[in-house]
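Cysteine hydrolase
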Amino acid sequence: MPTIRTAVLASSAVLAAAFIQVSAESEMSRAVTAKSPPVNDGLPMPGFDITRADTAIVITDPQNDFLSPDGVTWAVVGKNVTDNGTVENLEALFAVADDTGMPLFVSPHYYFTHDHRWQFEGTLETLMHAIGMFDRPHALSLEGFEGSGADWLERYKPFINNGRTVVTSPHKAYGPETNDLVLQLRKAGISKVILAGMSSNLCTESHMRELVEQGFDVMVVTDAIAGAITEHYDGYQASLTNFRMIASAVDNTANTVKAIRHAWRG
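Predicted C-alpha cells:
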C-alpha cells in the first residue's frame, strides 16, 4: 500500500506535469506584446524582409514633449515609455541606422502660432493646443526651439542632425497626409518601412495606416513606441491590436536591430 509521502509525491508530479503542459500550450499560442512577437495567435504572419535597396526606418515625434520627464504629456505617457524602454529602444534604432547607413526619416509634429487659430479641433488636438504641445513661434524661425518641448530628445540629436537623416515637414494632425514623408520616401526609392516612435495609437498608428494605403510594406517595432494611458483608456494596447492586424510584421527592437545588421552584412 502506498504511503502518504508516496501519494503526495505522486500528486506533486502530476501537478508539475500539468503546469508544464499548460506553459507549453501558452507558449504555442501568444498574442503580441511590447517585448515579444506573436506566436500562433490565429492571424496570418506575412513577414517583412529587410533589403538594403529599398528599406528605411521612419520615426514619428521623437520629441521632448513625449519622451522627456519634463514634457507636457509625461503624466500620461511616462509609465508606458518607461515600461517599454521606448527611449532606449528608439536610440538603438537611430544608432543602427547611423552605423549601417540605413536610410532614416523623422516625421515631426509642430504647431505654429497660426495653427492655434483653427476654427475646430478633434479631442486631442484641443488638448495639445491647450497645453502648448510642440509649440514653435514661427515656421521660418528656430527661435526658442532649443530645449523646448518641440525639440528632439537630447540623446537623439547626433543621429538626427548628422546631415543624412531626412527630417520631413511637420504633420499637423496625426498622419503623414499633411506632410511630405511619402514624397521623400518615394524620391529615395523606399518601398519598405520599419516604423517606430510616438505616440502609439495617434501619430504612429496613423502613419502606419496611411503608408499601407500608399502601397508601402510596413513593419512596426512594438517596444520602440508608447502611448497615453489614463484612468479609462489605454492608447498603447489599442494600437498594439491594430499594429498586429494591419502591418506586415510586428517585432521588438532587439530582433529588428539584429535583422538590420544581418541585411547590411549580406
